[in-house]
Design brief:
Strand content: 15-25%
Structural class: alpha/beta
CATH architecture of the largest domain: 3-Layer(aba) Sandwich
CATH superfamily of the largest domain: P-loop containing nucleotide triphosphate hydrolases
Distance between the termini: 20 Å
Strand order of the largest sheet: 5-6-4-7-8-1-9
Shape: globular
Number of domains: 2
Helix content: 25-40%
Number of helices: 16
CATH class of the largest domain: Alpha Beta
C-alpha cells in the first residue's frame, strides 16, 4: 500500500516524499485510515515502528481547515499580583500530544514540523528543563499542534499562558512510560482541561493491565491497532548473558571495555544513582563516558547525546526512563549492567543497537538477585539466552543458569488488521 492509498491530502503526501518515506509501515498503514475516519485509537507499537507519523499525519489533515483561522488576538494583562496573563493566541491549539520525556517531545516536534511543511500549520513543543519564556513566545505566535510533557503543560495552564479549550484531537504517547514515571495524575488533570468531545489516540509499547485500565475511561469505542516490532531482537542482535556476582560487575565491565575493544557502547542501569556511580568508576579507569537520566537538565542531556554521537564519549550510561529518547546510529554494543525489572524494557534497550540493518551485540550481566528477571525475559523471547564467560577473569561465587533450562514460546498475539476481524500473528 502507498501513502496515497491511505487518503492523505497532497500537501502531506509531498512532505512524506521529502522525508524519504517510500511506503507506510504496518502501524501507519493500519492507524492512519482509522484516524482519518474519526475513530479513537488504542495503538501498541514500539519506538522505531513509525508510530509518530501514524498519529501526526491524520491529526494534521483532520485539523488542517483550522490552520490560519485566528482566535482572539493575544492580549496581555496583569493579575492582582502583577503577573502577565495571556488572554489567547493567534491560533487555537487543535491537536495536543502529551508525552513523558523531553527527548520524546523534541523528536515528535521534529517529525510534526516536517509533516506540516506544506500545510501552513504551526508546531511547537513545551517541556521542562529549559527556559519558560522562549516557549511562551512560541505559543503567543500561535500553535496548531502542541507537543508537551505533563508538568510544563500544567505550569503553562496555571499561569494562564495556554488555552486548551479548543483541542479537537488528543494523543497520549508512551502511555506505559507515563504510568511508570507517575505522570498519570497530571494527565488526568490535563484531561479535565480539554473539551470532552474530541478524538483520542493512545499509544503504548505494551498493553499491560494498567494501560488497559486507563484506556477504558479515556477512549470511546476505540479501534485497537497492534503491530509486532519491525524485526525481533534475535534476528538483529547477538545476545549473551554473563553470570557475575554483584560486587564484580564494575570490574567485569571495565575488562570488557578494555580487552574487547568495544566501540560505541550504551550501558543501562536500573537507577540514576547507579548510572552516576558506574560513570565515575569508568572515569577512574580512564574510560571516557557520560551519564544521562532524569536528574540531568535538558542541556546536560543534549550535551551527553551529542558527545556520544560525535565520538567525544565512547560510553553512555543511561536509565530506562530516557531509553526511548536515545536514537543514535552506530551503537555497537548494549550492556545491561542491571537487567530491567520489566521484560519488555529489555527489547527497548537492545533495540538501540543493530539499527538500519546493521549488526549489534547485547550483553547482560546476571547477578543471583536477578534470576527471576532473566526468566521473564527468556519467556518473552521464547528461548534461553546463551551464557558466556570472559577469559582470564577470576569470578567470585555466582549464579550460573542451568544449560538445560527451557523457555515456553509466547502465545500468539491478536493483531488488528483494519477490519472487524482479527488475525493471529
Amino acid at each position: 500500500m502507498s501513502f496515497t492509498e491511505l487518503g492523505l491530502e497532497p500537501g502531506l503526501l509531498k512532505a512524506v516524499h521529502d522525508l524519504g518515506y517510500l511506503e507506510p509501515t504496518p502501524i501507519q498503514e493500519q492507524a492512519i485510515p482509522l484516524a482519518l475516519a474519526g475513530r479513537d485509537l488504542l495503538g501498541c507499537a514500539q519506538t522505531g515502528t513509525g508510530k509518530t507519523a501514524a498519529f501526526v499525519l491524520p491529526a494534521l489533515q483532520l485539523t488542517g481547515h483550522l490552520s490560519g483561522v485566528a482566535a482572539d488576538p493575544v492580549s496581555t494583562a496583569t493579575d492582582g499580583a502583577g503577573r502577565r496573563r495571556s488572554a489567547g493566541a493567534t491560533r487555537t491549539i487543535s491537536t495536543l500530544v502529551v508525552t513523558p520525556t523531553r527527548e520524546l517531545a523534541g523528536q515528535i516536534e521534529e517529525v510534526a514540523r516536517a509533516c506540516a511543511k506544506y500545510t501552513g500549520q504551526r508546531v511547537a513543543a513545551v517541556y521542562g528543563g529549559v527556559g519558560y519564556d522562549p516557549q511562551l513566545r512560541k505559543l503567543q505566535k500561535g500553535v496548531d499542534l502542541l507537543v508537551a510533557t505533563p508538568g510544563r503543560l500544567l505550569d503553562l495552564h496555571q499561569r494562564r499562558d495556554v488555552d486548551l479549550s479548543h483541542v479537537k484531537i488528543l494523543v497520549l504517547d508512551e502511555a506505559d512510560r507515563m504510568l511508570d514515571m507517575g505522570f498519570w495524575p497530571d494527565v488526568r488533570r490535563i484531561l479535565s482541561l480539554i473539551p470532552p468531545t474530541r478524538q483520542n489516540m493512545l499509544f503504548s509499547a505494551t498493553l499491560s493491565n494498567d494501560v488497559m485500565r486507563i484506556a477504558g475511561p479515556t477512549l470511546t469505542d476505540p479501534a485497537r491497532v497492534e503491530v509486532a516490532p519491525s524485526a525481533t531482537p534475535v534476528e538483529n542482535v547477538s545476545q549473551a548473558v554473563y553470570p557475575v556476582a554483584e560486587p564484580q560487575k564494575i570490574d567485569l565491565l571495565v575488562r570488557l571495555l578494555e580487552e574487547e575493544k568495544l566501540d560505541r557502547v550504551l550501558i543501562f542501569t536500573r537507577t540514576k544513582h547507579r548510572a552516576d556511580r558506574v560513570c565515575r568508576q569508568l572515569e577512574r579507569n580512564r574510560i571516557n563516558g557520560t551519564a544521562i537520566h532524569s536528574n540531568r537538565t535538558q542541556a546536560q542531556r543534549q550535551r551527553a547525546l551529542d558527545g556520544f554521537k560525535d565520538g567525544t564519549y565512547r560510553v553512555l550510561v543511561a536509565t530506562d526512563i530516557v531509553a526511548r529518547g536515545i536514537d543514535v546510529d552506530g551503537i555497537s554494543h548494549v550492556i545491561n549492567y542491571d537487567l530491567p525489572s520489566q521484560a519488555q524494557d529489555y527489547v527497548h534497550r537492545i533495540g538501540r543497537t543493530a539499527r538500519a540493518g546493521a549488526s549489534g551485540t547485547a550483553i547482560s550481566f546476571l547477578a543471583a538477585e536477578q534470576a527471576g528477571e532473566l526468566r521473564e525475559i527468556e519467556l518473552m523471547l521464547g528461548e534461553p539466552l546463551p551464557c558466556r564467560d570472559l577469559e582470564d577473569f577470576t569470578y567470585m561465587q555466582r549464579l550460573i543458569p542451568s544449560p538445560d533450562r527451557t523457555a515456553k514460546k509466547p502465545k500468539p498475539r491478536l493483531v488488528y488488521n483494519g477490519s472487524a476481524r482479527r488475525r493471529h500473528r
